[in-house]
Amino acid sequence: MLRALAEAGVRPDLVLGTSVGAFNGSVVADDPTPAGVGRLVTLWEEISASDLFSGGLAHRLRNILAFRPAIHGAGELRTVLEHVHGADRRIEDLGVPFQCVAASIERSAEHWFTGGPLVPALMASASVPALFPPVEIDGEHFYDGGLVDSVPLGRAVSLGATVIYVLQVGRVEAPLRPPRRLHESALIAFEIARRHSFANALENLPDGVEIHILPSGNPVAFDDRRQLRWRDTSETPQLIEGAYRAARDYLEKKNG
Description:
This protein has 256 residues and is an alpha/beta fold. The protein has helices spanning 2-7, 20-30, 34-46, 49-52, 57-65, 75-85, 118-125, 153-158, 182-203, 236-254, and strands at residues 15-18, 98-104, 109-113, 135-137, 140-144, 163-167, 210-214. Strands 1, 2, 3, 4 and 5 form a five-stranded mixed beta sheet that branches. The protein has a two-stranded parallel sheet with strand order 6-7.
């Protein structure tokens, strides 16, 4: 999607990110040119599960049996982020204004990082519960921003955005259905909670705001078992290419 936007000459004035979208957004905010997007694509095509997730099966089992709060540590993720941005980079150093969101445990609320150290903010925004431990920043603990604002449309509108491009991973494209099995009830409940703020913001979009929800090329059903294979990065190049083609076709049609 980012490559299609760059090729179409779309340059952001503001970048908002949630979870892994916070990382992608930070790279684009640092260099919104086609070359910058190309470096991000190369990174994702070359990255492996061991670069992001600590330990093998035995390590994960030990964490589970020891009743630790997560099956992976966050050291590898920090290393990747520091390799890309540097350990001391600050949010306000990026070339384009950038913000990312995380879920505060103590306040049960969304928290937007608008300045300060970049890497801890990105880690907080992408700290998926049970996969990674919560990230502590200034005495407060944070989990993945997708818990509170998976698609921050409302935030963009509140900051004055008038043309908004939503880059999503396919979950919002696949409609929900009534559960057929017990475990699906929990999945659907989570999806409703995850999607409702975006749906509400979409329904109440102010006049004069133009929104483009770019197609992912890979709609993901709420019960898609591929979501359980978080260590499998073998399909990443195909997913990137599919999203690029779908977004390119959408933009070409929009621009006539």
